[in-house]
Amino acid sequence: MSLGHLRSLLFTDPLIILTTIVFGMASFVVSLFDSTGRLPNRLARPWARWLLRIGRVRLTVEGLEKIDPSKSYVFVANHRSYMDIPAILATIPVEFRFYAKKGLFLVPFLGTHLKRAGHLPVVRGDARASVKSMTQGARLIQERKISMLLFPEGGRSRGGMRQFKEGAAYIAIKAGVPVVPVGLIGTRDVLPMGSNYVRGGPVVLKIGDPIPTAELKLQDRGQLTETLSHLVADLAGEVPYPVEASRPA
User: What are the residue ranges in the chain where pLDDT is below 50?
Assistant: First the structure.
């Protein structure tokens, strides 16, 4: 066992767990007095920054000047690690909601927190329920003037980029807000898929130019998804895969 691995097991991992518990409890408490989810989401930013600090992640951000904190967006990123969300939450100055696996909403305490914070479940295998969930996301953006974060690959990948699904494009067009491609580099090295060993190291987050959707129709979501796939791949230094355009998911 290397010295870095031992340090992670004895110090880094326990501190990350403790920090998550403390902020999670605080988030749950404030959510009891806030039906909008704004207070729990404000706590997410310092939680993310502490995780990166404890994990010795050296984060570099490019393109932050392209984001107007007063506006709403749909952010689309590649997904390589559990460190992806902390890297995004810690740096992009907007109020986020995101989609989580449906099973997480059934976990005691965690599921209640996700619901109260205003996050939404990912629906798979049911086209009608999937469209309903995406429409709900678009409505949240419009009504609460928030932003949405999605990983169109549908989950983390051990290899190259997976096919992008159309959910992010659907939501952005439905809400009439710009969609922003984001490329993450290095998070897989910091915390590989299937590993509980936080290694630390450099991470780069690249923000692309926002793409307006106000003039687009839902029929354009396939082309927009393909464009996003190539833009995210270019930002992340990866190779895009063909888009799965059979249905929004």
Answer: 243-249
Report the number of distinct structural domains present in the chain. Answer: 1
Given this model, what pLDDT does residue 192 score? 78
Q: Which domain covers residue 63, as residue numbers?
A: 3-236
Measured between alpha carbons, how far apart are the two ends of the chain, in Å? Answer: 42
Residue type, 92: I
Q: What is the CATH number of the domain that holds 18?
A: 3.40.1130.10
**190, part of any domain:** yes
Cα angle for residues 106, 109, 112 (degrees, 5° grid): 65
How distant, in Å, are the alpha carbons of 54, 216, 231 from that of 97?
24, 23, 22
Q: Are strands 179-185 and 74-77 parallel, antiparallel or unpaired?
A: parallel
Answer yes or no: are the C-beta atoms of 153 and 161 closer than 8 Å. Answer: yes
- Tokens standing for residue 173: 């067009």
In terms of pTM, does the model score above 0.85?
yes
